[in-house]
Sequence to fold (137 residues):
Amino acid sequence: MKMEMSKAIFIFIALSTLQTNYGQNCKIKPKEINDAVEGIQVTPFYKTLSSLGPHGCLNECIRRRDCVFFNYNWDSRSCELCYNTTESSTKPVEGYFYKDVTTERGGQSDPCVGTTCSMGEICVVLYNKNTVCIVDG
Fold:
């Protein structure tokens, strides 16, 4: 009986530790996205994508020529893609950060180096590593 209780306590502690570590590892801090600005949202945004991590959001934005900034919301895991317009503005919003992707284009984060898509298109990397531009629908 004592042995079974010890095993149960050990399993409970092991699972609790796994759950705590898993949760901590899933949330990437904005500082890991170079030059991300915490607590700020850029408006207006033209497209919202859901269920993405911050690096997925960077990838979605950088592959679209018309995306210059993105906002990321930690709570909803939503990604907002932003045009660069004269009406662009920022506002403080808890749980958000934004990133200007212009400095990332052509660099290590850009999967479409050498491919220039038109406005309204998205660069897609094919299985054979070639890239194509398709209409962003």
Notes: The chain has one domain: 2-135. Confidence is low (pLDDT under 50) at residues 5-28. The first strand starts at residue 37 and ends at 43.
